[in-house]
Every structure is written in C-alpha cells, then in structure tokens.
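Two proteins, back to back. First:
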Amino acid sequence: MTLAAAIGYVVFGFAVGIYGTLVGAGGGFVIVPFLLLVRHARPEQAAGTSLAVVFLNALSGTVAYARQRRVDFASGIWFAAATVPGAVLGAYGARAFSGRAFDLVFGGLLLAVAAVLLWRPLPAAGAAAGTPARGRAWWPVERRLADAAGGVFRYRYDRVWGILLSFVVGYASSVLGVGGGIVHVPALVYQLGFPAHVATATSHFILAVTAGVGTLSHAALGHVFLLPAGLMGVGAVLGAPVGAHLSRNLHGGWIVRGLAVALAAVGIRLLAR
C-alpha cells in the first residue's frame, strides 16, 4: 500500500466517523459500498472489514455521547445483549450471499429505510409514547434522561419489543456489515418512542457491542482486511467526537433526514451496479 493510499483510508475514515456518529449509524452503510465498489471485496470481506471500523467508530462515539449524558445505558444494555447471538449467527450467514444477491438485499434495505425516514422524519407531537402502535405493552418501561446541557427527555417503551428488534438487528448488521444503526435508530424512534438525540447516542453504545462481537466472529473466519480496517478505524476514532459535537447543534429532524439522504444515495448506487 502506498503512502497516498494509506492517507486516503484515514481521511475517508475521518469523514465516515463524523457522519456516522452524527446520525447514529456507525458509518457501515458508507464503508460497505466503498469496499464493494472500489476495493472489489467479496460481500463477507466487506461486511467483516466494515464492522471492524464501525466498532472503533461506535466506541469513540459512545465515549463522546456519554460525556453529553445522552446515552440511555439502562435500556442499551438490554438491547446490546440481545444483538450478540444475532451478530455471531450473521457472520456465518454472510458467506451465503453472492455479490449480486448482496447488492440487491443491501440496496433494497437502504432505499426502504430512506423512504420511511423521508416520508416521516420524526413522529408527530405526542406520538412518541414509546409503546408499539398495535398490541399491548408486554414490559412497559418509563425513562427520564437529563443531559449535560440541561435538556430533559421523558419517554416510555416496551422492552420486549426492543429486545426482539435488537436480535434481528444484530443478525442483519453482521450479515451486511453496517453495524445495525440504519435500522436501530428508526426502530428506537418510531417503534419504541425514543427522542431522536437519545436514539442516536444509545444506538452508538449498542453498535459498539454488536460490532465488536461481529468483528471477532468475522475475523475468526478470515473476513477482515486488517490494514485498511486499522487505517479507516484511526480516522473514524478521530472523527467520531466531531460528529457527536455537531449533533448538539442540529434539530433531531435534520439528523434523521441526513441519514435518509445518505441511505438513498448508496442504495441507488448499489442497485444500479
């Protein structure tokens, strides 16, 4: 690898770290297409290498968000634990995808999530009650979170739904290498009723656990490009605190819209390939 290529990986990781932390998605939705389209990696290699970078980004972002006191650790621990078995299974499932099938599944998922977010960036006032739109709440939980800036967030949700969703997210994130944030953030906001700022911060904590387990599983199977992952990881660690700082000055709706635009652009590119 040339010096210019190494610097390019670090700069790319820095940009991914900023944007991935800003929208709470970890950046895997950018890294995977980059590895597929530029590095011509196989799907399982793209997924494994991406998860390694997502782990470092999520870990750095979690520290920054924890300082802002926007991470709901009490809820995140339950959800993170539920992602672990799915992440391990997903590492093995990644080998079953052919290149074209991976593009179709990944691109279709990105477009579907982007469409939902653009159509309804945030729940209407009073709609974020936290219980599922249909059916009873099996394990209702009331939460109150006060951040370092003096903001107070109150919400309630059904923990059973959160655990079930997290297991599915853990599997999908490991198969696709996206860390799960592109699904987890909308799920936390719409299905469980988390405020957008709390959802992005808590998602990063969950990402750190999910991506860490997924990375170890993929590494054991030889799916991780160690040098590119390390270089992008250095950039992501430096960029994550910047993204966390920028998120404090943005309205929650713009954070969700920014995620939607990025997802749509990448989804279209993959399907066009």
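And the second protein:
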Amino acid sequence: MPNQFLSSFCSDSFHINNDLAPLIYMIKTMSLKLSESARQRLAWMDSYRNCGNATQVCQHFSIPKRTFWRWHKRYDPWDLKSLENKSRRPHHSPHKTINLIEHRILAIKTEHPRWGKEKIALFIAKERISISGKTVWKILKRHERIVKYHTRKRKAPKPRVDWLKIRVPGDLLQLDTKHISFGGRTVYQYTIVDVVSRVRYIAIHHQATMYATIVFLHEALPSFGRTILTIQTDNGSEFGQSVTKWLREHHIHHVFSHKKRPTENAYVERSHRTDEEEFYSMGNLGGTVEELRTNLAKYLNMYNTERPHWGLGGKTPAEVLASYSLPKVCHMS
C-alpha cells in the first residue's frame, strides 16, 4: 500500500496546485489564527521554500541569519503554532504565592463572585494573610476568574432651561424650523421667538442645516434690540455642535428640550400653529420663494405690531417689549 501511494504521488498525473489545494487552503486558514509575528515568520519560511536561498530571504526581510535559522529549526509545517513565541515565564519563582493561599482566594471569589481584588485582599487579611490587591488580581487572572461587568456609559446631560431666571425680554428665545411644501419642493421656515414679549423673527431657507441656522441667527438676533442670554432648541441636527460653538462665541447660552417633548418648546410651536392658521392656510403665498419671503415679512410685521395676543393680555408683542426699561442693544459681529 505505501509503495502504491508513493508511485501515484510520483506519477505524471500528480499536480501540486490541484491535488494539494485542500491542504494549502487549510494551511492558509490556520495562518489567519496566528499572531502578527508568527505570520511574519511564516512568510520567511514560504519565501525560503520558493527560492531556497536563506541569504536572499534574510536580505529581503532585513533579519539576521541566526534569527532565520533558529526559527527554521523550530518550524513544523504541520503545526504552524511552532512559529509562535514561547512563554518566558520562569519555571521556578521563589516569590510565588503558596497554593494554600491561592485556593483560599479562589474559594472567596467563588462564594462572592462580584467582589473585586481589593475587597478580597481586605477580607483575607482578617485571617492574618497579608497579600496585596495586585497579587490577588494576578491570581484571578491566571485562573481566568476576572469578571468584567459592562455598564451603559451615560452621556453628560444637556443643559436645560432654568425658568426661574426668565424675567425680561432677551432672557430666553426659542428657535425651531417648520417644513413648508411650496411649488413641489420643501423649504424651511426658521422661527425664533422671545418667550417674554413674543416678538418673533422669521426667514425662509432652502435647507435646514447648521450653516443655515448660523446664517439665520446672524441676521435675526440684532432685530430683537436686546442682549440675548439663552436660546432653546430641540435636538435636531440643524442645531448641532457648530451652532452651540457659534452661540458660545457670542456669549449666548444654548439649552435643549428633552427628546419627543415639543411642549417644552411651547412658545415657538404655538407660533407655528398660528402661522398655519392665519398665513399658510389662506393661500396667498406667491408663486416664487422670493414672493413667499415678501409676503411672510408683511405677515411678520403684522404679527409683531398689530395682532393682539391673548397670552399678553390683548397687547401686541411690540407693546410688551416697549413696556420694559431701555434695553441693551445686541450687536452681532
């Protein structure tokens, strides 16, 4: 039988790429489980098998010959783990913890699985066994008794409105966007309203992005004629970190409402409902975006200076704003 196998192996019909394909695939699959250094050494052995010149292999991989021959001597093509680094742990350690103490530590860990290294060290100290938490950890690590508990990392809470500090116009403005279907496409109405006076500023933009928000704020804030302290928004992407940074640079505090709680942005949300009832539903929008902006500006002027508000005791936002003392003008650079 062996002679028959050798004769078939040496016959002309044998082809190394075809007949040994499963074996080559197996070796490649096993090599994927090796460490990076072992795969590098396997590349040395493959190159040497192809060229048969150790000097050329060492020059190509920039390794000393003695290193190559040491690993070549250790290399077993049927056991690729032979190319892995061997443990350098000493066979005898004079400072090794005695087995009795190790068994006691493991017994405590079995009885109290959630105890950590320091707690076990304190507990075993009552039995007149002096051992450090680091040594306890090494023993637990060696016996694979370390238990990692995965806890959900909580994000830092976003700043919220302190309503006790909202007294005069400029203390808090609410900002939001409204989707408008116009001419077969969507445009966005940016709205910002002062919660004390109800004075508003509105503008139409083609996109709702952080850049568009900054452009809107740059043109809207000076129109209030007061120092703006805080602006509240929802958690939309158009009110992201770039907007917060821009507001911080202009000494304005950016606060957020909780997710899925539009009632926390009640002033700007209610003003959007008024826009829908008294402007958009009337149909006098215009044929182009520029005409829409013109008509919306006229409506905004009426809203701020002529329209009485039940929430303001029948006064207009402009009248409420004028009733406060001389404001500090907000200058935007």
